Amino acid sequence: MSKFQAITSLFILVFIIILVTYKITALSSKHSTTNHSTSNHHIQVQLLGVNDFHGQLNKYQMVSGTMAGGAEYLAAYLKKYIKENPNTLLVHSGDMVGGIPPISSRFKDEPTIEFLNLLHFDVGTPGNTELDQGVNELKRLIYGGFNKKTGYFQGANTSYSSANIIDTKSGTPL
C-alpha cells in the first residue's frame, strides 16, 4: 500500500468515525429520557454497506435458491436490517451507477440516483464508474443540474466523501 493510499484510507476511516459519533450523539440525546451521564451508556451501531450496484434496478438472478438483485430486493433487505437496529448508518462505497442497464443509462443514471435517494443513505463515495461520463456529469448527479436529454435533475440527497479524486487542473481534491 502506498503512502497516499494509507493516508486516504485513514482519512476515510476518521470521517466515518466522526459521522458515527455525530449520529450516536444525536440518537442518544433524542432517545434519552433522563439526565444520566452517557459515559456508561452504549449504543449498538450497525453499518450497512452497498457497493457495485451498477444501476441494476431490474436485473435478477438466483443465489443459493433465493431470488436476488433488483431495486425492490435490495430495498427490502436494507429495510429488514434497519428495522432490527434503528441506530443504523447506511453507506455506499461506489460504482452505484455506470456500466449499467438501459433502464438507468437511457436516462443518464438519474433513476438509480432517485432510487438511492429513496433509501436515505447517510454517506457515499464515488467509484470509478461514477466517472464514466466525466467529472461534470458526476457533479450533476450529486449536486443536481441540467441535462439536454433529461432536463433538470435534483441530484443526490446523500453526502459524498472522497479523498482520492484529484482535479487535474488545480491539483486539489475534487
Word description of this protein:
It is a single chain. The chain is α/β, with parallel strands linked by helices. Helix content is 38%, strand content 15%. The strands form three sheets. The chain has a four-stranded parallel beta sheet with strand order 1-4-5-8, with helices on one face. Strands 2-3 form a two-stranded antiparallel sheet. It has a two-stranded antiparallel sheet with strand order 6-7. Residues 32-36 have low confidence and may be disordered.
Short description:
The chain is an alpha/beta fold and 174 residues long. The chain has helices at 3-31, 71-84, 102-105, 110-119, 135-143; strands spanning 46-50, 61-63, 66-68, 88-92, 123-124, 145-147, 151-153, 159-160.
Output the keywords.
two-stranded antiparallel ribbon, 174 residues, alpha/beta, four-stranded parallel sheet, single chain, 38% helix, 5 helices, 15% strand
Describe the oligomeric state of these chains in a short phrase. single chain
Query: Could you say which structural class the secondary elements and strand pairing correspond to?
Result: alpha/beta
Spatial separation of the terminal alpha carbons: 22 Å
Strand content: 5-15%
Calculate the mean pLDDT score and round it: 84
Number of separate strands: 8
Question: What is the overall silhouette?
Answer: globular
Helix-residue proportion = 25-40%
Largest sheet: 4 strands, parallel
Would you identify the regions where 5 or more consecutive residues have pLDDT less than 50?
A: 32-36
Please report the number of helical segments: 5
Query: What is the H/E string?
Result: HEEEHEHHEHEEE
